[in-house]
Amino acid sequence: MMNWKTNYRSFYYVNAPEPDDIHLDPAQTALLVIDVQRTYLLPKSDPKEDAAWQPFFARMNDIVIPNIRALIDDCRQRGIEIVYARIACQKDDGRDRSLSQKKPGFNYLLLPRNEEEGQIVDELAPEADDIVVEKTTDSALTGTNLRMLLSNMGIRNVIATGIFTDQCVSSTVRSLADESFNVVVVDECCAAATMELQQRELEIINMIYCHVVSLDDVRNFFD
Questions:
Q1: Is residue 16 in a domain?
Q2: Taking the CA of residue 115 as centre, how many other CA atoms within 13 Å lie in the half-sphere pointing to its CB?
Q3: 130 found inside a domain
Q4: How many angstroms separate the CA atoms of 32 and 85, rounded?
Q5: Burial of 113 (0-12, 13-18, 19+ CB in 10 A)
Q6: d(CA 43, CA 12)
Q7: CA 163 to CA 146: how far, in whole Å?
Q8: Quick one: average pLDDT of 57-83?
């Protein structure tokens, strides 16, 4: 049976005692949707590269996006703040980006803030009163005023979702943990490029920076 208290144990925590039950107060909790932007779901120009990304596209379209949509709807009914983070540079040439987004390779991104490809996918589009922070860093906390916004609203618990689990999600979760926020990461609401990377990163961050849980677990945390 799946059990968040014993799943995703890395070498460091194989024999650690089970964590305490989690109870999330809606008034002190925010749902954070990280970088689910149109650009990441576009076909690749190279056929071989596109074929390699098909499992990721399938997970996003069939699992992650529908589950985040369901979680957003559930959280809205409970009065939980919905917060979005997206990668967006303020300068058209991207010179305001952090080094991690300027290096050549997959993480190289040039997404001026008003470009259509950089917007949140339509299925998860923010509502008028939702907070959307724009970042030129991997972490949504270090590159924005999100820390202050959460603090001002009395938020102590963050439900983390989005992409990529092993990059921006992980960086954000680690930053949140360093600032003493309680973080849960929802397995079915996040994705890495491959399931191997997904599994390994969840094992790495679980128990120390967050608790990795299922969608059903999160709903139970409010009951």
A1: no
A2: 18
A3: yes
A4: 7
A5: middle
A6: 39
A7: 18
A8: 98
Q: In this structure, what token pair is assigned to residue 217? A: 């677990």
2 domain-assigned: no
For residues 34 and 162, the answer to whether their CB atoms sit within 8 Å is: yes
User: What's the structural domain count of the chain?
Assistant: 1
At 2 the pLDDT is 65
Sign of CA dihedral 145, 219, 2, 198: negative
- 170-212 pLDDT per residue, tens: 999 999 999 999 999 999 999 999 999 999 999 999 999 999 9
Full-model pTM: 0.95
Q: Does 13 map to a domain?
A: no
Show Cβ contacts of residue 128 under 8 Å, excluding neighbours closer than 6 positions. Answer: none
Q: Token pair 């008034």 is at which residue?
A: 27
Within 8 A by CB and 6+ apart from 32, the residues are 83, 84, 85, 140, 158, 159, 160, 161, 162, 172
Domain that holds residue 96: 26-221
- Residue 111 banded pLDDT, cuts 50, 70, 90: confident
Q: Is 57 helix (H, G, I), strand (E, B) or coil?
A: helix
Task: Specify the CATH number for the domain of residue 165.
Answer: 3.40.50.850
Q: How far apart are CA 210 and CA 184, in angstroms?
A: 5
Contact indicator for 19, 211 with CB cutoff of 8 Å = yes
